[in-house]
Write the C-alpha cells for this entry.
Amino acid sequence: MKKYSYVGIAFIILIFGIYAVPKIVNKFKKPKLATITKVPDFEFINQDGKLITNSFYKNKVYVVEFFFTTCPTICPKMNKNMVTIQNKFYGNPNFGIASFSINPKHDTPKILKEYAKEHGATLKNWNFLTGDQDKIYELANIGFTLYAGEDSQAAGGFEHSGSFAIVDKNGNIRSRYDEYGNPIAFYDGLDPKEIHKIIEDVNILLNE
C-alpha cells in the first residue's frame, strides 16, 4: 500500500514539475520588446527656457507622458509614478524623461519649473516641455497615438491619456508583448505593476 502511495506522490510531483517549470522559467526570462514606430521630429521649450529637440535624447532611453500642470485628476499620480522611475535611474546619463504639456498657453517655462520643483523632478535629463499647442497635439495624437485634446466637460478642461511610452536609443517607441503575443504599445502610468514593467524594460533597452 505504501509502495503505491509513494509512486502516486512521485507521479504527482513529476506532473507538477512538468507544468510549473516552464512558468517559473518564463517568470525570470527577460521579455522581448516590440518596436512600435519612430518618434517624429519635435522641438519645444523646456522649464529652463532651452530649446529641446529629438537630438537631446539621441542615444538615450526615455519615458514620455502628456500632462498639464493644473490637472486635478490623474496627472499628480502620473508624475508621482514618474518620480519613482526617475529615482531608479538617477545618475544614469543615458536615461531621460519628456513631459509634454497639453495646455501650453498656461504652462509657461516658469510654471513648468515650479511644477517640476514641487513634484520632485530633479533628474537632469527630465524636460517639461511647452510650445505650439497644435504641434503638441499632433505629436500626441499622431506621433504617439496617445490622446490629448481640449474638453470643456472634462475636469480641468482637457482630456488626455494616462499612459506612458518608452523610447529607445534610436528614437523608436518600444513595448513588451501581452499574453496573446500582441504589442501593448504603452504602459498604464497609474498602475504600480505597470511602472515596475517600465523599469524592467528601460533596463533592457539601456543594455541593448
